[in-house]
UniProtKB/TrEMBL annotation:
Binds 1 zinc ion. This is Endoribonuclease YbeY. One of its GO terms (cellular component) is cytoplasm. It comes from Neorhizobium lilium. Zn(2+) binds at H126, H130, H136.
Length: 169
């Protein structure tokens, strides 16, 4: 099993407590890492790969989104790879950062008629895949990334988050 050293920062008190966030993150990202390692037939590094998760609010993620993506609005998840990776390659000792906004996750979960936990799990997988070089800016990339998300989520017992939708991009 790939070793992930997950560091959590809980910037909004309305998030679940840190032990709960860590347990969900370890379970979700451990499954995603196992899936990617098996899919690519490449082992993860022997030493643990470090990953930072920031659980924040809409105001904070809006500032980050404006600064780094020139989009002055909140978003659900942002990913910042420590180093660029080509899709299918394994990381070194540092993977990167994933930032998730609670209010957006809550609104989207209600709109999608999903539990908060299931939607958060999806966004953790989505952000994790971005750290591995996957993207959804073009249709082909979006289809590949969504297929990976769907397959990882299925291993976690969750349904296809894109069923009945056109690929995102």
């Amino acid at each position: 099993m790939p070793k992930l050293d997950i560091q959590i920062s809980r910037e909004d008190e309305a998030w679940p407590d840190e032990p709960s966030l860590l347990a969900l993150s370890e379970h979700t990202l451990g499954a995603a890492a196992d899936f990617l390692a098996a899919k690519e037939g490449q082992p993860f590094p022997e030493a643990a790969t470090e990953l930072s998760l920031v659980f924040t609010d809409d105001a904070s993620i809006r500032e980050i989104n404006a600064e780094w993506r020139s989009q002055d609005k909140p978003t659900n998840v942002l990913s910042f790879p420590a180093f660029p990776l080509e899709p299918g390659k394994m990381p070194g000792p540092m993977l990167g950062d994933i930032i998730i906004a609670r209010e957006t996750v809550e609104r989207e979960a209600v709109d999608l008629e999903k539990s908060f936990s299931d939607h958060l799990t999806h966004l953790l997988v989505h952000g994790f895949l971005h750290l591995f070089g996957y993207d959804h800016m073009e249709k082909g990339e979006a289809e590949k990334m969504e297929d990976l998300e769907t397959r990882i989520l299925a291993q976690l017992g969750l349904s296809d988050p894109y069923a009945g939708q056109d690929p995102i991009f």
